[in-house]
Design a protein that fits this description.
The complex is a heterodimer of chains A (155) and B (107).
Chain A: E1 5-8, E2 15-22, H1 26-34, H2 36-43, E3 46-50, E4 56-63, E5 69-81, E6 85-92, E7 99-108, E8 114-121, H3 125-154
Antiparallel strand pairs in A: 1-2, 2-8, 3-4, 4-5, 5-6, 6-7, 7-8
Helix pairs in contact in A: 1-2
Chain B: H1 7-11, H2 14-25, E1 28-29, H3 30-34, H4 41-53, E2 57-62, E3 65-70, H5 72-106
Antiparallel strand pairs in B: 1-3, 2-3
């Protein structure tokens, strides 16, 4: 299968690049980042605040089925240029990864196709690598939890 | 210098990355590797030690000489680390595309 989403994370650097081409007009791709109800649908998180404008701020939150907050992140929107660009910060609350700076560039490829490039800059190379390893670690934890569930049921 | 076993720490150093590139094509002795760097021989030895510790390099005895070669399995592990992160974004973006296609037809 073709890999649509590409991650370019060179060793020893403190930034990375995420790129993806979409089968969508650039206006719709941008809209998916600007409207809270739409962001909620594809990010799978609740949008507490999303001020889609220059010098606005945002906050996302995810709860588990028991109602416990498992993820909360926030940041400010430095630049909000409809259809073209968003520059924002991202910080996960209660996590040791620090603030990251994100440059989202939206590009029209044709009337029906577009490209999104996200350049993420971290405080240090070390923090970037910790962040990169997080989904890997979460995947391991989830597999471990499922295993425990299965074993628990067997008892 | 601390002996760090973390592969990411190991490849964060430019000299160590240089060593990995060198031995990627052929096995080499510590002396032959050191000859490629301006760094002092004991420093190169420490780098070799760290890379061996975290299994990016493997040693092989050939007569009186010890040869170092790359451990491709461990290198692959580094690439695999990125995959769950990429997959996370791939899933999100697939969802975004799906949501917006519906949005478009709804209008």
């Amino acid at each position: 299968m073709e890999l649509k989403t590409k991650i370019n994370a060179e060793v020893g650097r403190q930034d990375l690049l995420i790129t993806r081409e979409f089968d969508l007009p650039v206006e719709l791709l941008f809209k998916a980042h600007a409207e809270p109800e739409i962001v909620e649908q594809w990010m799978g998180t609740k949008v507490l605040k999303l001020e889609a404008k220059n010098h606005g701020s945002w906050q996302f939150e995810t709860k588990n089925p028991q109602g416990m907050v498992v993820f909360r992140a926030n940041g400010v929107i430095h630049e909000f240029s409809p259809g073209r660009r968003i520059v924002r910060t991202f910080e996960m609350e209660g996590a040791p990864f620090g603030v990251q700076l994100e440059f989202l560039d939206f590009e029209k490829l044709s009337d029906e196709r577009s490209r999104l490039s996200i350049h993420v800059v971290y405080q240090s190379g070390e923090k970037r690598d910790q962040m990169l390893k997080l989904p890997f670690a979460q995947g391991l934890n989830m597999a471990h939890n499922r295993l425990e569930e299965v074993l628990g049921k067997g008892k | 210098m601390n002996l760090r076993r973390d592969v990411f720490q190991a490849i964060a150093d430019p000299t160590r990355r240089g060593i990995l590139l060198l031995v990627a094509s052929q096995s080499m002795t510590a002396g032959a590797i050191a000859a490629n760097f301006d760094t002092a021989r004991p420093t190169v030895s420490k780098h070799l030690h760290i890379l061996t510790e975290c299994e990016l390099l493997a040693q092989e005895q050939n007569g009186r000489e010890i040869y170092y070669h790359l451990n491709p399995e461990k290198m692959k592990e580094i690439a695999d680390y990125l995959e769950p992160f990429r997959k996370l974004w791939e899933d999100r973006f697939n969802k975004l595309e799906e949501v917006m296609k519906k949005y478009k037809t709804k209008k």
